[in-house]
Design brief:
With about 110 residues, the protein is an all-alpha fold. It has helices at about 5-25, 30-40, 55, 70-80, 95-105.
Length: about 110
């Protein structure tokens, strides 16, 4: 009987999709929009708090000078590890590059 196997596959796929949608948010798509969504995601970097980047930096206010920050990835990870109590993002990951792209867009 194939029905239980099909249902299990559908359930597993659905749960995987929900997990990916909340944690990696558009994996494989580096964009300002993905960065903005990650900036507002309280699960960024596996955060152990209910904070997002937006909790401290409302709508990115005060971050307009990010385009001039030569250590932007380090600063992003300081916030992710410190305030969010999460794991540092891999510098060349889609998540890091999207957040970086969003922050840079604030000053353009």
């Amino acid at each position: 009987m194939q029905t239980p196997k099909i249902l299990f596959t559908l359930l597993t796929s659905s749960l995987c999709y929900l997990f990916l949608a909340t944690t990696s948010c558009f994996a494989g798509a580096v964009s300002v929009e993905s960065g903005k969504q990650l900036f507002n995601n309280h699960e960024l970097g596996g955060s152990k708090t209910d904070k997002s980047c937006n909790s401290c930096h409302d709508s990115g206010n005060g971050l307009e000078m990010s385009l001039n920050n030569t250590n932007l990835e380090k600063q992003i990870n300081r916030c992710v590890v410190g305030a969010l109590q999460g794991e540092a993002l891999i510098v060349d990951s889609d998540e890091m590059q999207s957040v970086k792209k969003y922050l840079i867009s604030l000053g353009q």
